[in-house]
Each structure stands twice: as structure tokens, then as C-alpha cells.
Amino acid sequence: MNAEPLSFLAVLQQADAAVQLAVASLLFSLLFSLWGLLRLKLRKGKGC
Amino acid sequence: MQTLMNVLIWAGYIALFVYLARKGEGHDAMHTGKINFAVQALAYVATYISAVALVGFGGLSYAYGLQMLLVAAGNVWLGTWIVYRFLAWPTRLCQRNLNARTPSQLLARGHRSPALGKFLALLFAVFLGVYASAVIKGAALLLAQILPLPVWLLIWLVALLVAFAVYVGGLRGVLYTEAMQGFIMLVGICMLVMAVFKQVGGPVAGMAALQELPPTALANEGFLALSAGQQGWFIISLVIVTSIAVWAQPQMIQRHFALTSARQVDSITPLAMLVLTVLVGGAYFVAALARLILPESVPPDDVMPMLVRQLLPEVGLQIFVLAIVSASLSTATAIYHIAVSAIAEDLPGRKASRPAWLAGIIFCVLLSGGCAQIKGQLIALLCTTSWSIVGATVLVAYVALVRFGKRSSLAAWLSCAGGFTACLAWYLLSHEGFSAFVYSLASPEASVSSVTPVLTVLLGENAARIPPFFVGFGCSLAGWFAGWACDATGRKHSNFWPTSQI
User: Fold this and answer.
1) Fewest CB atoms within 10 Å of the CB: B164, B282, B346, B373?
2) In this predicted complex, what is the ipTM?
3) Partner residue facing B281 (CB), from A15, A26, A35
């Protein structure tokens, strides 16, 4: 019998607020930094 | 064949290290020249993250679970984003306007007190010089696992390698070697993260499995929760000490001296945050998942090495050891540079000549190499307290100067002296060895079998649990406000010139 695939949010909901905050802020920092680097690349592409 | 491969990896590493260190040849030892933003971002992260953070805190993640991700998040947001958003460029402006060559000079000239500069230089030389011994010893112990050489010899070899980078490259060479080391750390941790995820079936499955584990004494609310009581308080204090005390570490302040424009900060910030998130977030996450792979009750410092030996192939093992050695070397080169500049330039009060620079380096090699060879309680205390004491001493006066443009000799002195004294006293009074010494002075005849720290006797158990950095910071802040209130001249001559020029 195949186990049901685990959902990230479902697993995260089982963590307490402090761990949820830590995981969320690390994921946000990944997105924030990638967005920052992309913006930089676009700015350089435009020759600004 | 494998041995040849290992030799090639290490020879390549040393060759690249020497090549990059020599990029600083011909430059002033305190000047960086123009440095690319990626180099600065990697150098900042490499200076920030030492082997203690990767191996030691990795071991703590194994014991405490995913709550250690709070430390990673604190390092990324408080220790990097806030620093680059609010402190880095004002620091560079202050340094340029004051024509300061070192962090001690920045504070001394900013607060118009040459004596404060000497005091800070002495503090940096002693505490960072001795702290470097712990960093160097960490690298030597790790190298001893893969090289057939005695630890004492490896300590001297590592100290000489670090000294070479500082002597030949100066600050520019140090930044380049640190950037390379930061990149290697990133590669090593990425390899380990992928291997652990493969082993446990991915991050989500790993978290779900961790959730099922029963609580332990340290992770008393489970591995996906902040612990209750003293254990949870320990994690919170770790977040604050590692993420806020870092603002005022001189080796970190000095990284901002390489900035060329405010726009460069916009480039450095996302890259430094990205690298740090992957490095510390990845390391602590997989170290927590190691509980699903390794047997129970592994000593904390053995968690990461055991994980690597179990999961990575031989080449991967070598690269990971390189990553950890890089973490040590990058921190050591930064610390050496500060300690040497304190000895060669700040204490004599004149620009360091080449012979003075060399003499400073020799002193640092002997001090840190010598301290690393001996096991003394005082040295152990200096090593563990260095980060907090330097942070508690400098933080308030530094932020007041660069961020708020407040310049007051009296306030800076009271703040630095208050922070230093309170933090050191708190450490000493909660130290069992020092407490035993105090008791023996009070009653020489009495034999003490189990020692209760003096602080516990005086203020109770809860007070003894307050981290010394918090106490030092509080006293430093109180000292600043007291000095500011009394220093009418300082108040009159303070302005907001650093921020007005952004």
C-alpha cells in the first residue's frame, strides 16, 4: 500500500509557532534574496 | 588512486589560497582597493560562520531539533539584513570621513578619544588573539583526522598559513581568500544537505519523522517545537548573542570598509543572505535530521563528522573537511588581521610599517599557536567569552556613532567600560573555577567539594542563567545614557553627519 504523499504545510502545522516562524523566515529570506539578485540582474541588463 | 585524488584536492586548495592571498600584494595592508560585491558578500559570510557554527551548532541541532533554525533565521535577518540595511554604509561613510584605517580608530576618532582607541586595541589584541587559538586548534583537530601529522604540528602549520595570508595579502588578500573559502563551505554543505535528504526521503518526510520522535531532556517539547524552560531560553539567548553581538565584532565592522557605494550594498545584501540561508539553514536542518540516521547519544561535536563519514563518498568527505577547515581559516584570517593591526598600528599610534606588521604577525602566531598548545582554564574562558565581551563593550558606542551620529568621549568611555566590566564579571562570577578561587580566598582552611557559583549565591539561580552579553549590553547602554546626560559639550558637537550623507 502506498503511503499518502506528505504535504509540507500539513507537516509544518504540527510544529509550534517558533519553529514555524523560523522555517517561514528562512524560506522568505531565500525568496527575498533570489528576488534581490534577479532585480540586480535586470537592472544591469537595462544598463542602469 | 584515491590518495592521489586527495593530494590533488588539497594541493589545489593551497595553490588557490596562495594565489588569492597574493592578490593583495602591493596594496596597503589596511586598504582593500575595489572589491567585487560577490567577493564581499562571500567574505562577510565566511568571516561570520566559523567551524564552531557549523560543527558545534550542528551538534546542538541534533540535540535540540528544528528549534535551532531560529538561530539560522536570526543570523540571516538580524545578523545580515539589518547590518547591511542600517549599519554597513553609515560605517563606511564614518570611516572615510574620519580617515580611520581600523575599527579601533573609527571609534576613537568618532568619539574624539585616542585613549579609547588604545583600550579597544588592547582588548581586540588580547581577546581576539587568544580566540584565534581556539579557531586554529579546531582546524588542526579536523585536519588530524585525515593527515598523518601530530596535532601540535598542524596547529603551527595552520597558524603559519593564516599568517601568510595576512602578511602577503593584507586586508585585500584576506577578503579574496575568505570569499573562496565561503564558496567551498557552500559546496560542502550543499553536498551534505542533498545526501541527508536522499537518506531520509526528503525534507518534508524528514520533518514528519522528527515529529514522531519522543521528547528528550533538551528537546522537551519535541523536535519541532521551542523547548520549555531553561532549554528554550538557551536557544533564544543563542539567537541574540550570535545575531546581535556580531554587529560590533571588529572583524565584521572592517568588512564594510571595502564598500565603494551605497548601491553596492543592494547587491551584497541578497547574495550574503542567500549564502547564509543555505549554509546555516541547511547545516542546522540536516543536523537535526541526523537524529533519524545516527544512533542515539552521539556527542554533539561528532554529529557532523559522523554524518559526513556515513553519507558522503571519499571525495565528498575531503571536500567537506575542506569546507570546515575553510570556515576556521576564514574566521582566523579576519581575527588575525584585526589583532595584528591593533598591535602594529593602533597601540603604537602610528601607521604600521612593514617590519611592525611582520612583528605583529609573529606575536599573533606565537600567542595563538602557543595558547592552542596548552589547556588552561583562563584560555578556555577567554575563548568562550571573547564574542560576548567584545560585543557588549563596543556595540552601543559603535551604533550610536555610525547610525545616530552621536559623538561623546565620556558616553563612549562609560559605555565601553560598563559593558566590558559587567560582561566579564558576570562570566567570572558564574564560573565554577573562579568561584572556588573566591571561596578559597574567603576561607583558606575550608575544603569545597562541590562549588556553587558566586553569582548563584548572591543573586539566585535565575539570575545566573542570564547570558553575560545581556548584562553587559544593559550596563553599556546605561553607561552611554549616563555619559550622554553629563556630557553637554559632546551633545553640542554631535550631529547626524553620517546619515545625512547617504
Assistant:
1) B373
2) 0.89
3) A26
